[in-house]
Recover the amino acids of this structure.
């Protein structure tokens, strides 16, 4: 199909807000979707079908059975193959729209990776599942001057807000400090009803499309949604005139140390180990070395190791997700013992 | 002379499952104190150790952020609707 054939976008171009000129702008647009879980997979699908010309899909995780209830891009084959979400999402969406470019980035957003992962785009859609990642995204967006759309959901409830660096309140204006660990419920504890994902992701994408279209009618403010109650309210949030991030440009989350680290994954019985020095790691070689003592499964994207009652998924960049523990020390010990980077 | 406090879904389990709670009108500080009476878990979600609101919680009277109205000293007059917005991280 020719890139100039816009007929697939006929119904969208009928909108006076879009039109042919707007569609051309969308096709020239570049968007990063940070996280390919519930919000991210739906947002990516809406953006791809809308004809946003370049999408970068970023995620650190792979598809699991309990994702399928709300992560609408994936299926049971993806669970069986253990494919990374970013890869599965890209492959699925290129079948829906081969007219655009989709880049899959399998990485954890941290201060060492975030600038490269989130740079070179016009808009960022926030679909990460933790506050640490969101504050980092906020810092990156301020550093690069890139607009982004905050979105978060739990239970039947969700929040979303447009952030235009230098113009609107940023995440740190809204929430001056991240909540202390353990003080905010996760989807794994409180649950989540898939329709709220649909509403919040749709609101995020609508705003993202407006940004690409250069519209001046963005929905500014914090939008609160409860799908069970059928409520949607948007309230103004003022910029903090002393905001360390968007006013004074002290981007402490981006400037944090990027050494190797070990973090419990929010709401999961799992710990992620990230290493900076992974030169020389070969997953096939590691699989061969471990085969006598562990159950190993090698895919083009990761090596899965079942050992000592734990399941370790090791990625080519040296990162590993270790299921079966929430204790960083245990995870670090397992990593040292079996991966040893 | 009362106001309605809207309890967001993530906090309802700390408020006996109630969606809305009617409490006497007054300052926002007094309204929230009345709200958390008998619910230390809800108090823990709203207040920092110093008696101030946690920086991760936003409170509105009607459509207006209390930060623009004087914080906890803001007036929540008869008939007002007070909304609490908790931090949400899931995706």
């Amino acid at each position: 199909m020719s890139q100039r054939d816009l007929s697939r976008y006929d119904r969208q171009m009928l909108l006076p807000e879009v039109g042919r000129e707007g569609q051309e702008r969308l096709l020239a647009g570049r968007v990063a979707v940070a996280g390919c879980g519930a919000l991210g997979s739906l947002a990516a699908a809406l953006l791809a079908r809308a004809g946003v010309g370049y999408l970068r899909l970023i995620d650190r995780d792979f598809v699991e059975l309990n994702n399928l209830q709300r992560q609408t891009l994936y299926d049971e084959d993806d669970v069986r193959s253990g494919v990374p979400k970013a890869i599965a999402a890209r492959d699925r969406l290129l079948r829906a729209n081969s007219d655009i470019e989709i880049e899959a980035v399998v990485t954890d957003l941290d201060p060492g990776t975030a600038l490269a992962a989130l740079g070179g785009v016009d808009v960022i859609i926030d679909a990460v599942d933790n506050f640490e990642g969101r504050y980092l995204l906020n810092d990156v967006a301020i550093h690069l001057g890139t607009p982004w759309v905050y979105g978060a959901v739990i239970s039947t409830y969700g929040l979303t807000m447009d952030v235009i660096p230098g113009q609107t309140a940023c995440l740190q204006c809204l929430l001056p400090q991240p909540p202390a660990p353990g003080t905010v419920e996760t989807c794994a504890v409180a649950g989540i009803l898939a329709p709220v994902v649909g509403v919040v992701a749709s609101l995020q994408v609508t705003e993202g499309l407006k940004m690409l279209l250069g519209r001046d009618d963005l929905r500014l403010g914090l939008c609160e949604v409860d799908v069970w109650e059928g409520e949607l309210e948007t309230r103004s949030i003022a910029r903090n005139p002393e905001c360390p991030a968007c006013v004074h440009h002290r981007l402490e989350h981006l400037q944090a140390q990027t050494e190797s680290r070990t973090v419990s994954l929010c709401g999961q019985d799992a710990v992620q180990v990230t290493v900076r020095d992974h030169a020389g790691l070969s997953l096939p070689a590691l699989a061969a070395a471990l085969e006598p003592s562990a159950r190993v499964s090698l895919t083009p994207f990761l090596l899965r190791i079942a050992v000592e009652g734990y399941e370790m998924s090791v990625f080519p960049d040296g990162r590993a997700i270790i299921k079966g523990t929430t204790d960083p020390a245990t995870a670090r010990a397992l990593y040292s013992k079996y991966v040893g980077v | 002379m009362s106001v309605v406090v809207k309890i967001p879904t993530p906090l309802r389990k700390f408020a006996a499952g109630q969606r809305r709670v009617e409490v006497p009108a007054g300052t926002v500080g007094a309204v929230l104190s009345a709200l958390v009476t008998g619910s230390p878990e809800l108090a823990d979600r709203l207040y920092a150790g110093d008696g101030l609101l946690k920086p991760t919680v936003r409170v509105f009277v009607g459509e207006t952020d209390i930060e623009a109205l004087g914080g906890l000293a803001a007036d929540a007059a008869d008939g007002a609707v007070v909304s609490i917005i908790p931090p949400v991280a899931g995706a």
In short: Chain A touches chain B through 46 residues (CB under 8 Å). DSSP finds twelve helices and 14 strands in chain A. The longest strand of chain A covers residues 148-154. The radius of gyration of chain A is 20 Å.
